[in-house]
Amino acid sequence: MDEPTGAMTPMSGFTPEPIPTARLNLLPLSVEHAQEMAAVLADPALHTFIGGEPATPAELRARYERLVAGSPDPAESWCNWVIRLRDGGRLAGFVQATVTEPHEPVTNAATAGARAVGHRHLDEATPGAAGPVAEIAWVVGTPWQGRGIATEAARGMVGWLGRRGVRTLVAHIHPDHRASAAVAAACGLAPTDVWQDGEVRWTGPLDHRERREG
After folding, report:
1. Considering the domain boundaries, does residue 79 fall inside one?
2. What is this structure's pTM?
3. How many domains does the chain have?
4. Among 18, 62, 99, 198, which one has the highest count of C-beta atoms within 10 angstroms of its own C-beta?
5. What is the rounded CA–CA span in Å between residue 146 and residue 20?
6. Domain of residue 88, CATH code
């Protein structure tokens, strides 16, 4: 069987497309990005809040093969982009969204009543009836932090999601990760009193202003 590649179309409904912003190009994730991205994400300090440890190029390639193949659940889409700087063409990080279509509540015994969504879980109280829900995340490599790149990339992704009908955003952020909290706030999210795996759940609607951006 041929190995999955970046050209494969995910099984679910949202297919990532290139997203240009003022300083960046967000490119749909490809398996071929693994080698460069392993260097981008190599600083152990980068994993203080996101957990885990730096992956080798081979480990990252295997992970990207799974992500590019897409979710087996037709109601769920895994959307992943790498962040490429227009000036110099270097990769600097990634943004991602797990989009879940409206659904009837389904209890999953393996996750104690939560519905699996990509690498996280949205519980059955999450407002999804009005339209798709996207759980979003972002990581920028250490050398490129402090330049507003994460905010610009996340807002570009949010604009793309809004133009395609997403109505609710969700993110999970470590309470001490101030930089990530600032990105979430810039995307229109606000913290809730819900905790999951030591992180605070942030949520927010996608308004018309955000849908025009990107």
Report:
1. yes
2. 0.81
3. 1
4. 99
5. 20
6. 3.40.630.30
